[in-house]
Design a protein that fits this description.
alpha/beta, 319 residues, binds magnesium ion, binds threonylcarbamoyladenylate, eleven-stranded mixed beta sheet
Length: 319
């Protein structure tokens, strides 16, 4: 295996990355949420390379990253709710699942057999500059192998994907640290498919109550079944003490003592700060000398809903 090609996200490398993507290659890049593994969303072969690099089952649809709502409306039908959410939250950590136009130029592979596409306008400067340099929509799942934790730094991407990607643009750590919130607006009642970096309350303030995804949504969105967020060590959730051999992932002031290793998601009890630290701290505690990772309770307020969703997935073997 060759060394991963990690480069600073400067003008020269952004231009080079744009050429790689237009030629059908893969570029990992930072967004405000997590690092994405990007390919030209109009190129079937390039999109197929994403699935190969991630070892991801090919029925899992991908998020397409675009410049703005105007570009999105060229690919998918934006209804009234979608337009209201785009006005308020794009660019930002919100992905909307919408019906493909009949003449949609996006690869059918990004939809994985569905009649819909998840679209998002990322807020990160590097992501926006890369879309501009490529002048194509960019399909990008999180830049980790299937079954691993989403990467929030270029080093995480290099560890997980190595030279399976043509270039890794290093734009520093991702400020949000959690994947985007995914909302299905393609039929009837708007439905939450995945809690994420945009709090649910913010969305409901604009379009009213969202239906929570149940079993049906899991089938409609096969990716929801994936064990995405899994460290190698077992997690013990809602821990209020520390057992022998455990590392502690703490939240708030005055965590219990006794852990050989302790990292605190947010000593001041702020769920946004905790979200930004979540994946990096899970990785840091996932070490051979640790028997298990005890995780203190995180409140279901603000980004706590999304944090707890990720923690439950990480704690459920093979879910
Ligand atoms: O923040 C994010 O969303 C990151 C950055 C890179 O943008 N991307 C990301 O992508 O997390 P990924 O592929 O790891 O997760 C996308 C989720 C999956 O659960 C997938 O099943 C769902 O969105 N999804 C994508 N397209 C869909 C569609 N057409 N219908 C239903 N669910 C869809
Ligand atoms: Mg993912």
């Amino acid at each position: 295996m060759n060394a991963p090609n990690v480069q600073p996200a400067d003008e020269t490398h952004l231009a080079q990355a744009g050429r790689i993507l237009r030629d059908g290659g893969l570029v990992a890049f930072p967004t405000e949420t997590v690092y994405g593994l990007g390919a030209d969303a109009t190129n079937d072969e390039a999109v197929a390379r994403i699935f190969a690099a991630k070892d991801r089952p090919s029925f899992n649809p991908l998020i397409v990253h675009v410049r703005d709502a105007g570009e999105a409306s060229g690919y998918v039908a934006m209804n009234e709710d979608a337009r209201a959410l785009a006005d308020r939250f794009w660019p930002g950590p919100l992905s909307m699942v919408l019906p493909r136009h009949a003449d949609c130029s996006l690869s059918l592979l990004v939809s994985a057999g569905l009649e819909t596409v998840a679209v998002r306008v990322p807020r990160g400067n590097v992501a926006q500059a890369l879309i501009a340099a490529t002048a194509r929509p960019i399909a990008a799942p999180s830049a980790n192998r299937s079954g691993a934790v989403s990467p929030t730094t270029a080093a995480h991407v290099a560890d997980s994907l190595g030279d399976a990607v043509d270039m890794i643009l290093d734009g520093g750590p991702c400020p949000v640290g959690l994947e985007s919130t995914v909302v299905d607006l393609s039929h009837g009642t708007p439905t939450l498919l995945r809690p994420g970096g945009l709090p649910l309350g913010d969305i409901e303030a604009v379009i009213g109550p969202l239906r929570r995804a149940g079993r049906d949504a899991a089938i409609k969105s096969p990716g929801m079944l994936e064990r995405h967020y899994a460290p190698g060590r077992p997690l013990r959730l809602d821990a209020t003490d520390v057992l022998s051999g455990e590392a502690l992932l703490a939240f708030g002031a005055n965590p219990p003592t006794g852990a050989a290793v302790i990292l605190n998601l947010s000593p001041r009890g702020d769920t946004a700060e905790a979200a930004a630290n979540l994946f990096a701290m899970l990785r840091a505690l996932d070490r051979p000398d640790v028997a298990a990772i005890a995780v203190m309770p995180v409140p279901e307020t603000g980004l706590g809903l999304a944090i707890n969703d990720r923690l439950r997935r990480a704690a459920t073997p093979g879910n």
